[in-house]
Amino acid sequence: xxxxxxxxxxxxxxxIQRISPVLSIVPFGFxxxxxxxxxxxxxxxxxxxLLKVNNVLFILxxxxxxxxxxxxxxxxxxxxxxxxxxxxxxxGLSYSAINYIAVNRNMSLSYLILYIVVFPFALFCFLNWVLxxxxxxxxxxxxLSDELPEAVILSKIFGFRALRTxxxxxxxxxxxxxxxxxxxxxxLGLFFFSDKKKTLKAIICILMFVTLLYTDSRxxxxxxxxxxxxxxxxxxxxxxxxxxxxxxxxxxxxxxVYIYILPxxxxxxxxxxxxxxxxxxxxxxxRFMIWAYSFKEFLSFKLIHLVGFGEYGHYGxxxxxxxxxxxxxxxxxxxxLSPHNTMLSILFDYxxxxxxxxxxxxxQSFNRLAFIFRYDNDTPLILLGFLIYNVIAGITESLGSTxxxxxxxxxxxxxxxxxxxxxxxxxxxxxxxxxxxxxxxTD
Length: 443
Prior knowledge:
Helix content: 55-70%
Oligomer: single chain
Mean pLDDT: 80
Number of strands: 0
Order of helices and strands: HHHHHHHHHHHHHHHHHHHH
Largest sheet: none
Distance between the termini: 44 Å
Strand content: under 5%
């Protein structure tokens, strides 16, 4: 079962890169096998209860599917709408069933994080390095119109001159780095908060670290390290755990916070060396301009703002045409250049309804991890690190929609694992409490 999950996710990651139409069909065989074997044919699974524990996630996925069907993308760009819908639907069914069965078999949570979440992405990352070394290219970086800039962390800190790297199976530098940063924070958590398979975890950590160095995505590299330090502090100060749910506020106010913080950070001599160009920090690498145009759209209420404009709503609304002219590095920048913020991308695609559901899901996930933490003091920290990364990275990247499709897959995998563990643990606690009460009555 675990092998099937690894293969299923790995091939899915390959297929959605548009290498070939044939390869895009391959994962359906594995997904259908997973659905038939683990979802339909499995006896003893209460699917109503499984849906209930994943209720908010299910609503978000439905909004994502509806948004895809209302897509504003031009015909022929990336994957077909139906392909997206089927992939999301079949993957959700099969992977939720595998999670459910694995957790009910009392498999270690750290074991499941390592093998059915992190390991498939590590294989995908390793394959990218092999293809890069061999010089194989699948023309996926056609969205860029000029030469890539220098990798400042490699050159200015490590003294190794190199350009930012677009890996062969990556649809974009920042998008690839964003989900590899999510894998990195999980890998660091696994290495420091679980004991087994230390060598494998160390190798994956190094692989992620080097990959992020070459993408030169500063946030995706730095956030996981800072989050790890915070988790080490939190392990010794658990009284602060219940307050972490309020991090969801950053989903809304994050851009306003960054507008003040980033220019200040850029003025510090120690951090200024990480700037790619003059004014990089002061402008948020052009993000502040994009956010300004985006916020302007929502200053005056329109009825469509309740449900959004559909996938690539920034393009469908016409707002992206205002920032496209200043983005000469991108071909077809009106579509290719996202709002670079999770809240704004959700507002454009799913509207205020989608934002409410997304924040509710994060709030629920933080609460459920706090519950799990009462009975397991180490492993939940690994998943908690990912949730923190999701909130912080989402301030400058569009993580709540299909702009970074692989990240959506990773996010769904993590939330399903949290929900499955929560349900299993809560049921176990309720059973023990009811047994204890019966014994008291008998006495």
